[in-house]
């Protein structure tokens, strides 16, 4: 798995040009100190005699060590582990002009540069990618009117309703304070204790227990702004807006057993995938959609649009396609860009506004506040990755790391010394929506936020059979790691208010008594919530393992491999040993990797090509058999040709239909016992299976992998 950079491309946007102005090229230059003094020797410190004391006078030694000692900045308190990418956003048309003055949303000719950072929430910087967790999906739009930061997640609701609960929630989910365990996991007592005492978490927890919390790729997960925002048009009219990112490839997830294994096999799995997709030109793409609704629509909903634990069901307000996001450039430097990027919810441009969602309001404070510590002072907005492409002119000044040399006389407003500059831009200035506020100061949750179960039930009712099964298994896993039985009981009690069958199924797995039915399920569902209805197109970037060895039939490999490559998938030949394998026609094929260096969990599908001798050898190769059986167990598409089909029986896999397969006992297995190269129908059947991604309804009872 290569992580080499492609050749440098020319800058493709104003933001790229701005960043390039800060690029440092070390090739062809000579070593100096930070003061530009040429260095004589950087391998030996200055000593009295060869074996004598080291001298304090050695400024190069001291500077080198000091700089090293201070390389780290505090990691983010949440979302510490992240991966970034550059790209652009482009609106489809100008139809949003009726709703907003934000130019990037209504000018179809503008390619707005963006920087996106994906993240997990719980784990520290060095933790594994494939843990069960929410994923951050934060986008900085460098618009002509200033920066807009859409700091969202891949789940459309949040754990809590009021920002004042955030420190409690984060303390509970993070590693426990006495032993810093567990890393990157919510399966522990303090998290579930909090959840069980704070039932507003119930809806979000349903999502967290679903496969949405273990995405296959950052390119195959949704993103959401979560809160209700406002769009504000030229007349000052406000419309509520919910932001949605939808991946062009569709929503795809891992299965839990696989995710856990990947955490060991390749902790950088999602990061590497993103990097490689972009390096190979298989750019991740997403559609931006908006749910737009008015104040009076909102009054008719049976939930409060200011409550961030609620969605607006798509069946009530459809998602309107607005534009597309393409991620097409990897960062040049992780620290300079991905680590130093500072998202702030307060960063909005004219035409986009806030609401009184109490979670959003707290975020308006918290993000700027955290950057002050994380990035060492108030000048973080002038770090290249954070710098707007719109001009920045004001009287803010000084502080740590100030990098301007202002040449002006007046540093205050109003002034006459500098002819009044910089002047107020008049009607282009950002105007806060003049919402009418009226009420007493008090610390109360509104009554309209009181229903904590209704939408959790809606989510559960909308799941397909396999999604429900995975959710039950996830609850059992998580609660199975909770040591205090009374916490497990409290969670089951809450689930009993979501759905009785769910509570019974979870209780049975975690040693909790079956609860008596408490409430009737309201029976409503929202099909748009099910992952089965979030399919996408194409097989771009899918990794497909071909199990080969000496005696493999060349035609059955190359025909399928070439077809997959044409569709932008990534086929790789895996053999018991690296090097080459001999084919039946006496030629040889280069091997991509030895089977022992990888694992089925790092691939999306497996192919066993034809070849009598190869099949015989693989049938007595435990690693190959395990590879195949495990991919089957993880519901992945499999293809087998000619003698290759014989591995299925040896691997104790259920029988498949001889033909193109796809349905029946072994759904997603495309197999043909007849020898020779695959025909078009075979290729099409396999590509269709790959597009479906997973086949969760397979019989698994006999699979021992
Ligand atoms: Fe965050 N959140 N958050 N959050 N959040 C941070 O800001 C915070 C919330 C989200 O890739 C921190 O720069 C509070 C909701 C993302 O750099 C911090 C509250 C949503 C990222 C912070 C919330 C998010 C953060 C940590 C409740 C989804 C990573 C470092 C009032 C809509 C951004 C930092 C990146 C990061 C505070 C709730 C998403 C501490 C106080 C809801 C994607 O400021």
TrEMBL record:
Pfam families: Catalase, Catalase-rel, Catalase_C. It catalyses: 2 H2O2 = O2 + 2 H2O. PANTHER family: CATALASE, CATALASE-B. Residues 32-421 form the Catalase core domain. Keywords: Heme, Hydrogen peroxide, Iron, Metal-binding, Oxidoreductase, Peroxidase. The keyword Transcription does not apply. Decomposes hydrogen peroxide into water and oxygen; serves to protect cells from the toxic effects of hydrogen peroxide. Transmembrane segments: none annotated. Belongs to the catalase family. HPII subfamily. CDD domains: GATase1_catalase. Coiled coil: none annotated. This is Catalase. Its EC number is 1.11.1.6. Its cofactor is heme. Gene3D superfamilies: 1.20.1370.20, 3.40.50.880, Catalase core domain (2.40.180.10). InterPro entries: Catalase (IPR018028), Catalase_AS (IPR024708), Catalase_clade2 (IPR024712), Catalase_clade2_helical (IPR043156), Catalase_core (IPR011614), Catalase_haem_BS (IPR002226), Catalase_immune_responsive (IPR010582), Catalase_large_C (IPR041399). It is an enzyme of class 1 (oxidoreductase). PROSITE patterns: CATALASE_1 (PS00437), CATALASE_2 (PS00438), CATALASE_3 (PS51402). SMART domains: Catalase. One of its GO terms (molecular function) is catalase activity.
